[in-house]
Each structure stands twice: as C-alpha cells, then as structure tokens.
Amino acid sequence: MRITIICYARFRDVFGEESIVEVPDSATILDAVRLLAGRVGPDADLLLTPEGLIRDYVMVVHQGSRILPAEAGTITLSDGDTFTLFPPVSGG
Amino acid sequence: MSSITTRYTRQIPLFGREGQEKLADATVFVAGAGGLGSPVATYLAVAGVGELIIVDDDLVQESNLNRQFLHANLNIGMRKVYSAAETLAALNPDLTLTAIPERITPDTVDSLTDGADILVDATDNFTTRYLLNETALTTGIPLVHGAVEGFSGQMTTIIPGETPCLSCLFPHPPPEKETPVIGATAGVIGSLQAMEVIKYLTGTGRLLAGRLLIWDGMSGRTDYLSVSHRPDCCVCHKYTVSKS
Ligand SMILES: [Zn+2]
Prior knowledge:
A five-stranded mixed beta sheet of chain A has the order 2-1-5-3-4. Chain A has about 90 residues and is an alpha+beta fold.
C-alpha cells in the first residue's frame, strides 16, 4: 500500500514535506512512521525512542483526528491514506 | 469614550455597537509580553478592549526586538510590562492597563487572573501553560493557547467544561529549548489569538474550540484537527464533573 506522510515544521526539515512510504497490507501508523524514520539515520530519534516507539510529544493527525503515539500501533492504514506529523512547539 | 464612533468606525459594522460595548466592558488577561504578547495585546488594545492585565517578569533585551514590537531600543533593560504599557497607552488612551512585573506561579495565578473574562496564553513555556490551564478549569474562564517556533505554530481555544483541556491535547510538553523564531510567525499566531478573544467577547464567528490549528509558514500548510477529551487526563479528572 502507498501511504503519504506530511510533515510540518522541524519534521519537514528532516523528513521532507510530503513522503510516500510503501507498507504491507494491514500496516499501522507506527509501521509507516518507522519506515519514514529509517530513511534519515540518526535524526530518526526526533520521531522515535530508542525502543522504536513514537515520541510521546509527537502529534499524529489521521483523518482529522489526533492519534496519540501510544495508539499509533493499533491504527491500521488503508491504501492511499495520508497522515500528518506535527511537532508541537512551546515558544512564545 | 467620546471618540468611540470615530475610532471604531471600520469595525462596528462587523459586530455592532453592542459588540463594541462588550469589548469596552471586557478584561483580558495576557500572560507574557513577548513575541505572542505583542500582537495579542496590540490588537486587543486598538480594538477597544476595556482592560488588559499583562503579566511578565522579564526585562527587554536587544535580542527580543526582532519580534517583540511592544518594545523599542530605548526600552532595553526596562521591565517588559512597563514598556508594553507605554506603547499600548499611546495606541489607545481609553485602555485601562494593569502591568504586573511578576512570574506566574501556583501561588499567584488565581489572584492575577481574578476578574478576567478570558485568558490568553502568550507564554514561552509549558509549566506556565499547564498552570493557566488548571486555572481555566477551576474558574471556568476560557483560555486561548498559542505557541510558535521557527516558521510554525499552533493555537486552540479551551472552553472549560466543553472542550478538551490543554493537558488532554498535550499530555507531554514538547522539548523546551531556546529555539529560533521570526517575528512574522508570532505575528500570525498572536493575531489569531487576538481574533479568538474578539470573537469570544463579541459573540461572533466560530471559535477554534475543540480544534487545534497547526500551521507551517515555510510550506504554507495549515491544518485543523479535532481533539477529544482524553479519558485518562489527570487534569480534567481533578476539575470537571464527569461528562459523557
Ligand atoms: Zn484534560
């Protein structure tokens, strides 16, 4: 399946604005994020913990809703799906 | 208020004289007189909001001046809230301004925000943001959240008892470090925050309540996501009666 991942802000700098990843059927958001992260070497740690889980501050948006990092492994994707990765910011 | 008709001629058609009077009767609490605080306080002052309470314990530094247009060169070294007060008084002599050069702490947050109709989060850290969130939940005063970094930012409006709270949305704070930022970014998000306040006070439009706006100026992308209560949110749990 082809999945599109749109990255904002700091994530866009590292992973690109819009990326296509090829994942097997019944892959989850977590699987797709791992594939994307795997493309960049050490900078992957911006998205993933050393255990390969999505960092807990990362905002994942799928079909207009927020997916918590802990849920990303349970959300199954469909061919053609798009999701967004946004790094919440704290400056003022 | 003699100049009300002249000063506000171009905006009264948007929400009527009644709306203008609601702005004049309102008190808005602005946490922070920096990058976000500059557009927030400026647009609220010139729109005719009656009273602003501005709290910030920082001094103006030269490195603030790429974005914090409440302050100018001659204000370097001065308390930001006093510099802000001078600027805002010159922009609108009808404004009542309470400038408080203090840090917002768990001990002071309730008295500082007392009497406010709405709170604006123009701070630069999640410690203060979570504090404002708890105050919003205990008092029922709405909170407009905004944050920026580089060319991007986020904002949402929290209506206690209706929308998810800030901790539902951000159970974990983003990593905090001194990050680069350009003034125009704070200008975009801060202006949107001021807009939310004006909409709330005048009862116009649809608030960004229960929705988070995410914005990336570098790619020109904007998105909205609907956010829901996190059943395990420890902050909501403490303050709100269980809602379905
Ligand atoms: Zn909550």
